[in-house]
Each structure stands twice: as C-alpha cells, then as structure tokens.
C-alpha cells in the first residue's frame, strides 16, 4: 500500500526531529557529564573582594550556588578571569600558591612582562582550576591570589585612574567538567575548548573598583625648568671646585735634607 505525499512528508519530518534531538542530546550531555557523574548548577553568585591598598592587591573570589552533584570529587570547577591591561599576575607567585593549596593556574599568555606600563601591555586570561568541590553547602569554589596594578601613562588634570573589574559578564566566568566513561582524565581537555561547560546562571554579584596613581603633566614645564636649573647650578659648583683645587704639577715640592 503506497502512502500519499502528505503522509510521507509528515513521517519524514517526525523521523528527522527524532534523529536531530537524539544527536544533540547525546553529544551535548556527553561533553559535560553522564548519569553517574554530574553537576547541575541552577543559579549562583560570584563575590569578588579586593584586599590591601596600592599597586599590590589580593583578589578573593567566592562562588555560592544552588547546585546538585553526584560527588564532590566527580567534577572540576574553573574560574576564568579576563583581566584588562591595567592588571597583571606573577606566574612564580601563582606556582607557589598552586603547590600549597592544590589548585592549578593557567595563563593564556606564555610571558607576562611585569615591568611594562598599562598602555604598552595587553589583556590576558587566567584560569583557576579546582578538582574537588568544597565540603560546604552552597559553596562551589573559593580562592584568592595576588594581583598587581601596572603603572599608568601620565596625563593632564589626572591624579588617579579607576580600574574596574567584574562589571561585564565576560570578566569572570564559571566553567565545569565532570568525569565520564571516556573522559576520566580532565586534563586532556584544554580549558579554552568547548568541552568545559559554562555555568551561565552564575553572575558577578558586585564588581570591584581600584584606583592607581597617575602622573600629572600640568606642572611638567615648571618641573623641567627647575630640574634643569638645579643641574646647571650643580655643574657650575663642581667645575669651580675642580678649578680651585691645585693640581700636582703646580704644587711646590720642597726637599728637606735628612740628617744622619
């Protein structure tokens, strides 16, 4: 019995929908977790706090969330920081912290120059990976590490520059990856690949604002004039002292006979 054209189109649409739904569900779920190892994040907040003053600070981050997990050791959680050029980190400091606290830090830049000013530096991405969830209810991850502010280019009518971090969604993000039948080793999946699942319902609660001194160029002419004046006076004084001091060629040497 042959089917009419309308029935064929209907069956084709139904089978296509079933096939597409199965493929998307399989690959989308397989990349993050399976039925035995899972982490489901319903909502949450990223709380940022900056300690200390001046150029050298401590960034403390706490992520509280409403989540479900199969086991604290089944999933790894990563914090991704998109830092602006005004901020830098010292890889040697991070290596020491990672050794003591059993977390891992990854920087997308191979080299971070700690001496260059902000206007000659580039933004960078830092990943903080924790392979065990905290043994605290509603706390997904908590960490702190040192950050440093770069020197700023001098400008007119300016004494401080505002460095704001965390006001955009992309500044701090939470990613996670759970064990699976084929991906029991998390480290084989780089952090910048699509295997890590973003916790899109976790947002920054409040951004942090820091202020860094900026050189004021309004008084630059007076500073240059006074500096050159002191240099000229110092040079004149040194030359005059050198000319007034007798040289060995002009000194009178007297020979006194020695009596035996």
From TrEMBL:
Pathway: Glycolipid biosynthesis; glycosylphosphatidylinositol-anchor biosynthesis
Subcellular location, principal: endoplasmic reticulum
Cross-referenced InterPro entries: PIG-X/PBN1 (IPR013233), PIGX (IPR040039)
Keyword Transmembrane helix: yes
Pfam families according to UniProt: PIG-X (PF08320)
Domain of life assignment: Eukaryota
Keyword Ribosomal protein found: no
GO biological process: GPI anchor biosynthetic process
UniProt keyword annotations, A-Z: Endoplasmic reticulum, Glycoprotein, GPI-anchor biosynthesis, Membrane, Transmembrane, Transmembrane helix
Topology of the protein relative to the lipid bilayer: Single-pass membrane protein
Compartment annotation: Endoplasmic reticulum membrane
GO (cellular component) term, any one: endoplasmic reticulum membrane
Main function: Stabilizing subunit of the glycosylphosphatidylinositol-mannosyltransferase I complex which catalyzes the transfer of the first mannose, via an alpha-1,4 bond from a dolichol-phosphate-mannose (Dol-P-Man) to the glucosaminyl acyl phosphatidylinositol (GlcN-(acyl)PI) intermediate to generate alpha-D-Man-(1->4)-alpha-D-GlcN-(1->6)-(1-radyl,2-acyl-sn-glycero-3-phospho)-2-acyl-inositol and participates in the sixth step of the glycosylphosphatidylinositol-anchor biosynthesis. Probably acts by stabilizing the mannosyltransferase PIGM.
Family (UniProt): Belongs to the PIGX family.
Protein's name in the database: Phosphatidylinositol-glycan biosynthesis class X protein
Organism the protein comes from: Sipha flava
């Amino acid at each position: 019995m042959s089917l009419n054209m309308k029935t064929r189109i209907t069956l084709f649409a139904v089978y296509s929908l079933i096939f597409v739904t199965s493929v998307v569900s399989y690959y989308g779920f397989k990349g993050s977790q399976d039925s035995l190892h899972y982490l489901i994040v319903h909502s949450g907040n990223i709380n940022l706090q900056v300690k200390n003053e001046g150029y050298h600070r401590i960034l403390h981050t706490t992520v509280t969330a409403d989540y479900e997990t199969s086991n604290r050791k089944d999933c790894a959680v990563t914090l991704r920081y998109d830092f602006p050029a005004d901020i830098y980190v010292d890889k040697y400091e991070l290596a020491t912290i990672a050794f003591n606290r059993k977390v891992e830090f990854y920087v997308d830049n191979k080299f971070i120059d700690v001496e260059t000013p902000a206007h000659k530096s580039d933004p960078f991405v830092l990943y903080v990976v924790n392979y065990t969830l905290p043994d605290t209810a509603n706390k997904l991850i908590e960490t702190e590490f040192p950050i440093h502010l770069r020197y700023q280019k001098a400008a007119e009518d300016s004494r401080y520059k505002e460095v704001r971090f965390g006001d955009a969604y992309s500044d701090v993000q939470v990613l996670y990856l759970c064990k699976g039948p084929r991906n029991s080793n998390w480290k084989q999946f780089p952090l910048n690949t699509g295997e890590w699942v973003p916790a899109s319902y976790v947002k920054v609660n409040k951004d942090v604002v820091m202020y860094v001194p900026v050189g004021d160029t309004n008084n630059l002419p007076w500073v240059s004039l006074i500096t050159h004046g002191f240099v000229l006076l110092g040079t004149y004084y040194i030359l005059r002292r050198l000319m007034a001091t007798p040289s060995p060629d002009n000194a009178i040497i007297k020979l006194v006979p020695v009596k035996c």
